[in-house]
Design a protein that fits this description.
The longest helix is centred in the N-terminal third of the chain and has 47 residues, at 29-75. The mean pLDDT is 86. The protein is 82% helix and 0% strand. It has 221 residues and is mostly helical. It folds into 2 domains: 2-57 and 130-218, no CATH class; 61-120, no CATH class. It is elongated. The protein has 8 helices and no strands. It starts with a helix and ends with a helix. Helix 1 (2-25) runs antiparallel to helix 7 (159-184).
């Protein structure tokens, strides 16, 4: 889910920033369409590759940590057993309950290692899939990022009208993604929606300002 949200937000911000910057600079709609689609595909691939590398690195770290804990349990089992005792003692367990937990955890080698990875390293026990993360990041980036460009696929040179429609679509996308984030992480839906909306609006505003300044400074049109 985090891959979808990340890709969707970046995709919409990327393309709508291009729309805003081009509108501020006074470029024709065709330029927006060409720049938007080109950046959408190139940045989508870049995002997917970056996420693939990040998840792969995370997986390699988890595998290294697992091998390390396996070696520690094999070489110094009592030291690792004491670590389990300390972990659950810090959670408020004591006496016979604590010893029962320690005996139960250390009786199962897999459970023992998983507990150490989760509690000591803070690692998720769900094995990440780099290819799946890259794929869903790319799909979300391209599909959602395409939405602000939709008005520019239709004939006509009325940039102001196309920009208005694109702005409405982008605003709806930002707010919807925020709602999705709020639902997934069980936070305030309205706050999450408006937070993402403001994030996207701020990025688009910067792009619009840059386009306007450059147009006035260099007469780009």
């Amino acid at each position: 889910m985090s891959d979808l949200v990340l890709g969707a937000i970046d995709g919409c911000i990327t393309t709508f920033a291009i729309v805003s910057g081009a509108f501020g600079a006074g470029f024709p709609p065709l330029v927006v369409l060409v720049m938007g689609v080109a950046n959408l595909l190139a940045d989508g691939v870049s995002m997917a590759v970056s996420n693939y590398e990040a998840v792969s690195a995370q997986r390699r770290f988890a595998e290294h940590a697992r091998r390390t804990e396996e070696q520690h349990i094999r070489v110094v089992p009592e030291g690792e057993r004491e670590e389990i005792r300390q972990i659950f003692a810090n959670k408020g367990f004591s006496g016979e309950n604590l010893e029962h937990i320690v005996d139960t955890v250390t009786a199962d080698r897999t459970l023992w290692i998983d507990t150490m990875l989760s509690e000591e390293y803070g690692l998720s026990l769900v094995d990440p899939n780099p290819l799946a993360s890259a794929w869903w990041t790319f799909v979300a980036f391209v599909v959602v990022g395409l939405i602000p460009l939709l008005p520019f696929f239709y004939a006509g040179d009325n940039f102001a009208q196309k920009f208005t429609i694109s702005t409405a679509l982008a605003g709806l996308v930002f707010f919807s993604i925020g709602l999705l984030k709020g639902w997934v992480f069980q936070t305030s839906l309205v706050r999450a929606g408006f937070g993402t909306f403001l994030l996207g609006s701020g990025a688009a505003g910067i792009a619009f300002a840059v386009g306007t300044i450059l147009q006035q400074a260099f007469g780009v049109a």
